[in-house]
Amino acid sequence: MRELPDDLEEHVSHEIVQGYVAVTPDGVEVRVRRKGEKYFLTVKSGEGAIRDEEEFEIDKTEFDRLWPFTNGKRIEKTRYEIPHRNHVIELDVYSGSLAGLTVAEVEFKTEEDSAQFKAPPWLGREITEDERYKNKNLALMGIPV
């Protein structure tokens, strides 16, 4: 496992739990997420680096009503927001059944932006196209072997 940044605890972080209400074979995901004290319903579609996503803030009551539908399809993680040049690296440190796994994500405005990104040495290998590391698959199948 790669070394994480020494100053990790100095960065903004959020405890996240999320669960999948539905995951379809054609790439549509419906998930609910608690991030700190906020709650969200998210619908994603598409595959690869560019996906459509709609996210709606919901209240705790709505989250609690949907949460049971996610049984067996959940993840827990701490997300650290690490500034790096003109971007923010979102470093997810998983817990629970995924303890020991860390995955980072950087969102880009354009594909050119993505191609020009210079990763810090601690970031590790590129896994954008590795389906095993998608949150939906981690929730459904666990840590890749």
Give an overview of the whole structure:
The chain has about 140 residues and is mainly beta. It has one domain: Hypothetical Protein Pfu-838710-001 (Beta Barrel). It is built from three helices and seven strands; from the N terminus they run E-E-E-E-H-E-E-E-H-H. The protein has helices at about 60-65, 110-115, 135-140, and strands at about 10-25, 30-35, 40-45, 50-60, 75-85, 85-95, 100-105. Strands 4-3-2-1-5-6-7 form a seven-stranded antiparallel beta sheet. Strand 1 (about 10-25) and strand 2 (about 30-35) form a beta hairpin. The longest helix has 7 residues, at about 60-65. It starts with 11 loop residues before the first strand and ends with a helix. The mean pLDDT is about 95.
What distinguishing features does this structure have?
single chain, 145 residues, mainly beta, Hypothetical Protein Pfu-838710-001, seven-stranded antiparallel sheet, 3 helices, 7 strands
* CATH topology tier name: Hypothetical Protein Pfu-838710-001
- Could you say what the CATH architecture is? Beta Barrel
Give me the strand/helix succession: EEEEHEEEHH
For this structure, what is the CATH homologous superfamily?
Hypothetical Protein Pfu-838710-001
What is the number of independent domains? 1
